[in-house]
Design brief:
With 115 residues, the protein is an all-alpha fold. Helix content is 62%, strand content 0%.
């Protein structure tokens, strides 16, 4: 007679799948960014982004929903410098900027006439 579970459950590790999904998302964002710069909003299609990123149109719609949402994500990533879900104010670059003393504010400004 068999003792113990016949089919013990193994834990599921999706680390590789999650990493691949992040890579694919970055590739789509990079492709969209390049096309937006080259062709503008009107000239950039989801089909063109998919071709350039090497993914299906359905992949883009599932990940972003609409062309507008994709463009907003491109803008957000470009603005903050990365696609990690970290708010701008929590990023090290922003913290360093805030910590930097404002020398212009502490220096007196003298306006003179050019005449």
């Amino acid at each position: 007679m068999v003792q113990g579970p016949v089919n013990p459950q193994r834990s599921y590790d999706n680390t590789r799948r999650a990493a691949q999904a992040r890579r694919t998302r970055r590739e789509v964002l990079d492709a969209a960014h390049r096309l937006l710069l080259d062709q503008g909003y009107a000239g950039t299609t989801i089909s063109a982004v998919a071709r350039r990123a090497g993914v299906s149109v359905e992949t883009i719609y599932k990940a972003f929903g609409t062309k507008g949402a994709l463009v907003k994500e491109v803008y957000d990533v470009t603005l903050v410098g990365g696609d990690e879900p970290v708010p701008l104010r929590s990023r090290p670059e922003f913290q360093a900027m805030v910590a930097e003393p404002d020398h212009a504010a502490s220096s007196p400004v003298t306006l003179t006439s050019g005449a």
